[in-house]
Amino acid sequence: MTIAVTGATGQLGRLVIEALKQKIAADDIVALARTPEKASDLGVPVRGFDYAAPATLAPALEGVDTLLLVSSNAVGERVAQHRHVIEAAKAAGVTRIVYTSLLHADVSPLSLAAEHLATEADLAASGVPATILRNGWYTENYTGSVGGAVAGGAFIGTSGEGRISSATRTDYADAAVAVLIGAGHEGKVYELAGDDAYTLADLAAEISRQTGQDIPYRNLSEADYAAALAGFGLPADFAAMLASWGTGTAAGALFDDGRALSALTGKSTTPMAESVKAALA
Prior knowledge:
Elements: E1 3-5, H1 11-21, E2 29-33, E3 46-48, H2 57-60, E4 66-69, H3 78-92, E5 96-102, H4 113-126, E6 130-135, H5 140-143, H6 146-152, E7 155-157, H7 169-181, E8 189-192, H8 200-211, E9 217-219, H9 222-231, H10 236-250, H11 260-265, H12 272-280
Parallel strand pairs: 1-2, 1-4, 2-3, 4-5, 5-6, 6-8, 7-9
Domain NAD(P)-binding: 7-180
Organism: Sphingomonas abietis
InterPro entries: NAD(P)-bd_dom, NAD(P)-bd_dom_sf, NmrA-type_oxidoreductase
């Protein structure tokens, strides 16, 4: 069986390929990348693959049995890009597609959900057997700000008391690999999240504990948080989007206690405290 991974040079794609190499022969893995030379260090066959160039996709999928479609990072363009990939996969004879969607995409208040739901619908309509991995937030989305919080003396956000069941990229990669090489996952939708939930106040308290400094959590209004992010140099539109996701988090968008992720991998997800330690290191 040949397994191909899109977005192979991205942070999640690389981890999936490295984990796959521990389970199956490298020659049975295909790295699909928009810039193939950036994937030359992966130790597996590499093929050029650009979501936005549909005519090139089907030839790159020749001989592929199972495809991991890692969602595009082009917010606003993803429905069309994913549809191109699904159509190409069907034309190339791919027998199964595994797609990385969003936690509780069918009910999520996050603006990201609509594009993921559209792709889930396109997969259902394609006739190609599919598995949906509805991934929650990466813990790294938060721990990437640990240094700034320590320097600034506070962790800021707009998530209120919203509980966050995040997991690391490695956790999600391991779940993807379990599905890619396992049997009986066709037609399944998995809500994937960390075993334990925390608030951003809990995260700030853990940073404080590990640094010995007082790093409180400061909850801002959506507008103020967007302005703060823009002040850090983020484009205004993106800053507003991030702030809105924080508001959605306050409403419970990133909480899940089903533990489907650890059930797939057979091991507990990475504790938040361990991720904070790594970020501080």
